[in-house]
Each structure stands twice: as structure tokens, then as C-alpha cells.
Amino acid sequence: MSVASMLKNNKLSKAICEASWATFKAMIAYKAKWYGKQLVVVAKNFPSSQLCSHCGYQNKDVKHLTLREWQCPNCHTRHDRDVNASINIKNEAVWLLTAGTAGLAY
């Protein structure tokens, strides 16, 4: 049975997806250690795409995945959802490292 077929099964799909992410995370942690780098893990529930990377305003309307671009109602900065999320994740990781509370993978 192919992975694509198993993902269609509601009883199996969650476990398969979680196993895939766990494997991916393990590989990234291994590579980071190999190259002498630190892997910082940001919380799953961190609202990376909802936060304005310019002023920090949290826009709950951005939860919908169909919304690819948005303008911050607070500072009026225009955001591409993915670019904005990546900036917020980087900033959160730096903050976790600086605060000494980083959830390091190894």
C-alpha cells in the first residue's frame, strides 16, 4: 500500500504524518549536530503567520490558509503570509536563544 493511500485512511493519516515529521526533525537535528550548529525548536502553537513582523500585532483573521497576503490593521504593513511567518519564526528562535529558554533538539 502506498503512503498516499494510507494518508486517505482517517485512522492512519495522523500517525503517518506525525512519524514523517518526527523523522524529518531527527534528520535535521543530526545534520545540525554534525555541522556544529544549534537547532532551536519553536512551539507548534506559535502564531507565526498571524503576527505582524513589523509591529507585533496579532491578526486572528489570518488563521484561514486561503488568505495568502494581508495588511496589518495596526501599522498598515503588507505581508506575504509565508515570508512574514518565516521572519517571525526566525525572530522567535533568536529570542529563545537570547533568553536561554530554547527547546534545543539535542
The tally of structural domains comes to: 2
Question: What's the N-to-C terminus distance?
Answer: 34 Å
H/E topology pattern: HHEEEHE
Shape: flat
The description of the largest β-sheet is: 2 strands, antiparallel
What share of residues are in beta strands? 5-15%
Helix content: 40-55%
The overall pLDDT, averaged over residues, is: 86
Radius of gyration: 17 Å
- Counting helices, strands and paired strands, the structural category is mainly alpha
Count of strand segments = 4
Strand neighbour order, sheet with most strands: 1-4
Walkthrough of the structure:
Residues 21-89 form the Cas12f1-like TNB domain. Keywords: DNA-binding. This is Transposase. The protein has two domains: 1-37; 38-106, no CATH class. The protein is mainly alpha-helical. The protein has helices spanning 3-7, 10-34, 81-99, and strands spanning 40-41, 69-71, 78-80, 103-104. The chain has a two-stranded antiparallel ribbon. The protein has a two-stranded antiparallel sheet with strand order 2-3. The chain is built from three helices and four strands, in the order ααβββαβ. 8% of the residues are buried. The mean pLDDT is 86. Helix content is 46%, strand content 9%.
Question: Mind sketching the topology for me?
Answer:
Blueprint: H1 3-7, H2 10-34, E1 40-41, E2 69-71, E3 78-80, H3 81-99, E4 103-104
Antiparallel strand pairs: 1-4, 2-3
